[in-house]
Design a protein that fits this description.
Elements lengths: L1 H12 L6 H17 L9 H16 L1 H9 L8 E12 L2 E11 L4 H32 L4 E12 L3 E11 L3 E11 L4 E3 L9 H20 L24 E3 L5 E5 L12 E5 L16
Parallel strand pairs: 2-3
Antiparallel strand pairs: 1-2, 3-4, 4-5, 5-6, 7-8, 8-9
Helix pairs in contact: 1-3, 2-4, 3-5, 4-5
Length: 290
């Protein structure tokens, strides 16, 4: 418990060095160099992990951060995603591996800082939840808990950037959730699903396609199983207006569902590519989806 109490203390007391610009440049340089080397994940104590998380977080949410980015020679308008921090904790039956991405190079510094702050906050919250859960388990002297987070750049073209972040929690069983962000790099705009369409007709059109596609897939492959109306699980009927999505490098719309959301757990995260021909009359333009 002392370690866990020290974690909270470190979160509250960590101070940010004044030489921000130099620190920003150094952290970016080191992060990029680390990506080129064989990856070695340090196993830190909870306290040191918290301190590092706060240090990195404070740099990225600072107004000076975007200015420091633009002052680095050679970057120009290049938009890049890199690992700003990796934390690994290994305490007997409790493990955590948290990887935090960061974006640099967006002309819209407010959007860039907002995304980077969000990514840091996501892992900070998970670390705090992990702390609380293992504290309870240690009190009763039993339990296993693991958490793993990371990210993947799905699309990185001159126009678009799509980033997927995953969270895997391992307790009595394992479950995975995904989060996606798609950015118009040319205009520094975060794209939402509703923003792609003229009105909300897309909800019914996409939902109908997915329902039919589920039935088609199950008809040709008996190992595929989506939820049906069996009194225990509910048959898929409609997507959410802000359903998770991303756009591929070939400008196709992918609708995504988390594990257990529309299918049995063994199916994992489920995605559907939506044919552009059923969307073209609904789209605001063909700038992103074509």
């Amino acid at each position: 418990m002392k370690k866990l109490e020290k974690l909270k203390k470190d979160y509250d007391e960590i101070e940010i060095p004044s030489e921000l610009e130099g620190l920003v440049k150094d952290s970016i340089r080191q992060a990029k160099l680390a990506q080129k080397k064989p990856k070695r994940v340090k196993k830190w104590s909870l306290a040191s992990a918290a301190a590092a998380a706060i240090f990195v977080g404070s740099i990225n949410v600072s107004p000076a951060w975007a200015q420091s980015m633009s002052s680095i020679p050679g970057l120009g308008a290049i938009v890049e995603v890199f690992t700003v921090q990796k934390v690994a904790i290994d305490e007997e039956t409790y493990q955590a591996n948290l990887t935090t991405p960061a974006i640099e190079g967006l002309e819209n510094s407010e959007l860039q800082n907002s995304l980077n702050e969000k990514y840091i906050e996501e892992n900070k919250v998970l670390l705090e939840q992990f702390e609380q859960e293992i504290a309870g388990m240690k009190e009763i002297g039993e339990g296993h808990l693991g958490i793993d987070t990371g990210y993947e750049v799905i699309t990185d073209t001159e126009q678009l950037l799509s980033i997927a972040r995953y969270e895997v929690e391992i307790g009595g069983s394992a479950s995975m959730t995904m989060k996606y962000d798609t950015v118009d790099k040319e205009n520094s705009v975060l794209i939402t699903l509703p923003s792609l369409f003229k009105d909300d007709q897309y909800i019914d059109v996409i939902s109908s396609y997915i329902s039919a596609e589920m039935k088609r897939q199950m008809a040709v492959d008996e190992e595929i199983s989506y939820f049906t109306s069996d009194g225990i699980t509910s048959e898929f009927s409609t997507i959410k207006p802000d359903q998770k999505f991303y756009i591929t490098p070939t400008n196709k719309l992918i609708i995504a569902f988390d594990e257990y959301e529309v299918a049995a757990g063994y199916m994992g995260v489920v995605t559907f590519e939506i044919p552009t021909n059923i969307l073209k009359d609904l789209l605001v333009s063909d700038r992103y989806i074509n």
